[in-house]
Design brief:
- This protein has 282 residues and is α/β, with parallel strands linked by helices.
- It has a single domain, classed as Alpha-Beta Complex (Spore Coat Polysaccharide Biosynthesis Protein SpsA, Chain A), CATH 3.90.550.
- 29% of the residues lie in helices and 27% in strands.
- The strands form six sheets. The protein has a seven-stranded mixed sheet with strand order 7-6-3-8-15-10-16, sandwiched between helices. Strands 1-2 form a two-stranded antiparallel ribbon. Strands 4-5 form a two-stranded antiparallel ribbon.
């Protein structure tokens, strides 16, 4: 843990201790995969939009999905969906519930024509969490092959070709025997001040330190080899995929970590980050 002023220098850290495998993508040295030159443009992209967005409820007034909050004239989630569509990926699945929150998403995106994609929906009848929602979609025949998962309030910024680069790495990892590829950043600013001590006596104040721990961005690719773990999730149970399936894959040494500089990712899950995203676009 060390103190820095901003998060806009982490690419230098990655350049010094990682192997570059895309315009702004990196893997730890020694991973040993060969990057395929071609991509499969028909790969399915899954967008989880079942959350209630409690930290942004004062903006939505709990009347519509947080993913439809307008940022410079269009919904927050549309920035993520259009990034994939503009990179040539058109096969989308959106996970929602059957409440008015989910209805608001379906009413906006419809069949995907407006963003140049084909959108199908998996509609849950109860809150299932990120893991339960994936299992529900798979059990109902809506996920049948390798897919990319993207929580659309996790926005990749200033990297137009990210989707293309990430899929190349994912397909390359599959050929090397990996079941999952998870996208991380090399650290994040801790949003609070940290008080250091020795034997209870305060020795230092560190305001919003940079925590240099690889952090999940909410974007991953899952191969069919891992579907057995998804099948193992109890039906109609609300569970996190990160606490079930992802843990199981990690223990089997079949998960590849890919890194993107922190400055290219913004998790828009509260008002400060929403305002930051607006400033970046503005």
């Amino acid at each position: 843990m060390h103190e820095i002023v901003s998060e806009d220098k982490t690419e230098r850290l990655l350049e010094s201790n990682c192997t570059k495998i895309g315009e702004h993508l990196y893997i730890r040295k020694g991973t040993g995969i060969d990057i395929e030159p071609e991509i499969d443009g028909d790969i399915q992209v899954v967008f989880s939009m079942g959350g209630r967005g409690t930290r942004l409820k004062h903006i939505t007034n709990d009347k519509y999905s947080k993913h439809l909050i307008k940022v410079h004239g269009k919904p927050l989630s549309r920035y993520a969906l259009e990034m994939w569509s503009e990179n040539g990926f058109k096969n989308f699945l959106i996970l929602v519930d059957d409440t008015y929150i989910g209805d608001s998403v379906r009413e906006y995106y419809k069949n995907g024509d407006e963003i140049g994609a084909v959108i199908n929906y998996s509609i849950e009848h109860s809150k299932l969490g990120s893991g339960g929602a994936i299992k529900y979609a798979k059990d109902h025949g809506l996920i049948t092959k390798a897919y990319i998962n993207h929580y659309p309030d996790d926005i990749i910024i200033n990297y137009p070709n990210f989707a293309h680069d990430f899929v190349r790495v994912f397909l390359s990892a599959i050929k090397s025997g990996y079941q999952c590829v998870v996208l991380c950043v090399p650290g994040k600013l801790y949003p609070y001040g940290v008080v250091m001590d020795k034997d209870g006596k305060v020795t230092d104040f560190i305001e919003k330190p940079f925590i240099a721990m690889d952090t999940n961005t909410g974007i991953y690719g899952m191969n069919t080899d891992a579907f057995g773990l998804i099948d193992g999730i109890e039906p109609d149970k609300e569970v996190k995929i990160e606490r079930t399936v992802m843990k199981g894959i990690a223990k089997s040494d079949k998960m590849l970590k890919v890194l993107i500089p922190t400055e290219y990712w913004i998790p828009v899950n509260d008002e400060p980050n929403l305002n930051k995203f607006r400033e970046i676009l503005g």
